[in-house]
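user: Please supply your own:

assistant:
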Amino acid sequence: MLSRGQLTRQQLQTALQAQQGSRHQKIGMWLEQLGYASEQQVTTALGLQWACPVLAWKNPPDSGHSRLLPFRLLERFRMLPVQFVSSTRIFYVAFSDGIDYTALYAIEQMLDCRTEACLISRSSMDRELERIGHEPRAGDLLFESWHDPAAMAHITCNYALKLGAEQVRIVGCGDYIWVRLETRRELATLLFRHPPAMPSQIEPATGEHFCPPGHPLKSRPA
């Protein structure tokens, strides 16, 4: 923005000083609040910084795509599914505060696809997350009271047996362990949030399949 003449060094210095008292707010938000830049200018600058396209969010995406990802992960990473092209298995995902490649890698491992990132404005992200959050999402379950991997495995086994899951896939995604249970007619998602004092004992985004003991499920390579 400095090189484009959209921002002066004095304005940037003022915004950085204002940011000192509130580290959780990004510099772009301060530039907007101080009236030094518009939301579109900040979003465009982020697109240049992250070398990805900026999407003009005029029409909301097909709500069916949002069900491919748990809503908690959409909120956590401030991302939105834009489009899944089944013929090429490319999943287009939008962010508003910068690209999170950990989340993209987890999505690729979980859905056996390739991801392409883009950016949208913060207000568009807020609006769409609020809309999706009000949609009924049967099959998404969150567990925050489990204590160890054995408890997580026990819960996962119970749901796999109850649903008759034909495929179970597990990946690590940020603060969560994401489990996807698939049957011919049904899809269930289990999210296990890491206990605060316990490091994850599962490698991030392994893409490995998990078979409950005694269940006639054969692992397939990711």
Notes: The longest helix spans residues 149-163. The chain has three domains: 9-37, 63-133, 140-209.
